[in-house]
Amino acid sequence: MTVFVSACIALTLATSTAQAARLKEIANVKGVRENPLIGYGLVVGLAGTGDKSGTEFTIQSLTSMLSKMGIALDPNQINVKNVAAVMVTSRLPAFARTGNQIDVTVASMGDSTSLEGGTLLMTPLLGSDGQIYAIAQGPVSVGGFSSGGGGGGVQKNHPTVGRVAAGATVEKELDYAIAGLGQFEVNLRQPDFTTSLRTAEAINQHFGVEVASAASSGSIEVQIPSEYRDRIVRFLSEVEMLEIQPDRVAKVILNERTGTVVMGAGVRLATVAIAHGSLTVTISTEKEASQPGAFATGGETRVVENTDVEVFEEDAQLNVIASAVTIGELVRGLNAMGVSPRDLIAIMQAIKAAGALSAELELM
């Protein structure tokens, strides 16, 4: 496993040394975002895998829907095994226009066992303000199945969650427009003062004029030049395509449950001496029957436990690891000691406690 971890780190170092990223991949324009939508609906046409008769909200929803269509029914006479109550969720893009279609996710609310083969009935999708922004309807696609009988069964993935591709039609647009803007704000997804300053400098250098300034570690204020006032989309396109070298915090991620160790490229190690060995204690117990001899006049048979204890300790040598210039040298130095990823977790914690690790240590 140590060899595998080393190979992965070496490959990462070889392919990601000082690579820049487009601004659109590390930041976004303030206000330009998706908005969550939610709705409550019914999926019909299920082959007996819908909600059970005791699911009252499904019965009430079906009765209410039919009554609006002029059909009066006694709720006690309705069997909902082919119907399932579901929550419908989606995300409305920032510049979605009326008539655009978006995908929706459908999830069972009751005790339905599968939504396979069902059709979502017309469902209004509401925003956080309670207004309807889209209407969803269509056949549900489930990436799994569930079947069984006679006390046994088989299930693949989650058959109670499905999607309706392009299943919702936008009915109301978001009140957001970029025409007439004089300035806008770029927000970094991972705030950092160095990255913020580099972004502002890259924008100014590209347009040859001071139009951007770093307002904080997470935001850059950008003024739209006069020559771009009628071409704001082009200006935003040029800004988001700029190459930025983001600065990242040196961090070491340790997952003790899986033995996973991930180190960032900025990890530095001061000169330190390390000795690491392992102690293995094996205790085995065997039970034997002890009974009197063939001609004994008395006594009884007893069960005797024989316990064997073995102790094995690996030889550990004191190794000195010099101040590492790169993470590659650090990994090679630790691998020279023959440590496994789980041993590496204990070593990194001890190095951090000794103050020799110049990185943030995060335990998962």
Give a topology summary.
Blueprint: H1 2-15, E1 21-22, H2 23-26, E2 27-29, E3 35-44, H3 56-68, E4 83-92, E5 101-108, E6 119-126, E7 132-139, E8 145-149, E9 152-156, E10 161-170, E11 183-188, H4 193-207, E12 212-214, E13 219-223, H5 232-240, E14 243-244, E15 251-255, E16 260-263, E17 268-269, E18 272-274, E19 279-290, E20 302-313, E21 319-321, H6 327-335, H7 341-353, E22 357-358, E23 360-363
Parallel strand pairs: 15-23
Antiparallel strand pairs: 1-14, 2-11, 3-4, 3-6, 4-5, 5-10, 6-7, 7-10, 8-9, 11-13, 12-13, 15-16, 17-22, 18-21, 19-20
Q: How many whole angstroms does the radius of gyration measure?
A: 33 Å
Number of domains: 3
Strand tally: 23
Structural class: alpha+beta
How far is it from the N-terminal to the C-terminal residue, by CA? 19 Å
List the total number of helices.
7
Shape: flat
What's the order of the H and E elements? HEHEEHEEEEEEEEHEEHEEEEEEEEHHEE
Return the average pLDDT rounded to an integer. Answer: 81
Percent helix: 10-25%
For the largest beta-sheet, the strand count, sense and barrel status come to: 6 strands, antiparallel, barrel
Could you list the spans in which at least 5 consecutive residues all have pLDDT below 50? 1-17
Task: Please report which band the strand proportion falls in: under 5%, 5-15%, 15-25%, 25-35%, 35-45% or over 45%.
Answer: 35-45%
The spatial strand order of the largest sheet comes to 3-4-5-10-7-6
